[in-house]
Amino acid sequence: MNKLVSITLLWLLLAAAALAESPKADLTLSPKNIAQWPAEYTLLLTVPADHHAYLNAGDKNIYIPVALDPDAQLAAAGLTITNVEKPTGVYDQEVAAQVLRGQSEFTLTLAPAQQAPAPTKASVPLTVRYQLCNDVTHVCYRPQTASLDLSLPAVATSPQTSSNNQSQAASTEEQSTGLMDKLLKVFENNKNNTALMFALMFLAGLLSVATPCVYPMLPITSMFILNRAGGIAEKEKLHALVYLVGIIGTYMVLGLVAGMTGGAFNAFMQSATINLAFAAFFAFFCIIVAGIL
């Protein structure tokens, strides 16, 4: 009973940590030259005190750096970022990466994509993705995405041309938007919705069972559960339930740990010693399943 209470409290603490409000950077976008193409803008990123953001992925390529338009939404609007001037940042020996603290300024140049007409919209959204880590507790928070309004140079077009362009764009978007595109759009638009992310990850976990590599394990697992139950129907259901809860619980805990620690979990899993320890751990249980122990 005490173990059940302890496990329940642990799950509650993990859920509270997952739902906790993460610190956010302050982002300000100012036009530098939007009289004509190419247009120039200044992005000011202000990191909260006692925190840092990453300018690059680090020496071990495990961190999530500041990214402008990470999902290439500007390309869908017929635009491209031709140049980005980044701040120098500071190299942090402890995390082995170039980091940003306080205020940092980015300068970006935007132009219509090649063989694409100049956009007729007055503005488009610019997506900025970043990850913050605490300098005191060394906790890295889940990556966050912010959307800023990007004003565009004015383009003189006739009402008829503008109407035709909008109709063609709407038709193309309607044709290209399939089921996967809609799901990806839901995912991108709700990155900060923790409950929805849990639901989507749970659905992805269920779908992962349908992958071909899982098929050979289904009869083996079923036979193992039936043998452990000794032919008793109630025990078969109980063993199957315990197996299901164990699998779901394990992946949920690993997902929470990975999400709350950021790049630290990746570095941990890339250690040769850790991987050898996991190999020995699974080999031990394989021996048990085989009936040798």
TrEMBL record:
Chain ranges passing through the membrane: 195-218, 238-260, 272-292
Residues of the Cytochrome C biogenesis protein transmembrane domain: 196-290
Alphabetized GO MF terms: protein-disulfide reductase activity
Annotated signal peptide: 1-20
Compartment(s) where it occurs, according to its Swiss-Prot or TrEMBL record: Membrane
Gene Ontology annotations of biological process type: cell redox homeostasis; cytochrome complex assembly
Main location per the UniProt record: membrane
Membrane protein topology class: Multi-pass membrane protein
Organism superkingdom: Bacteria
Protein name: Cytochrome C biogenesis protein transmembrane domain-containing protein
Species of the source: Methylocucumis oryzae
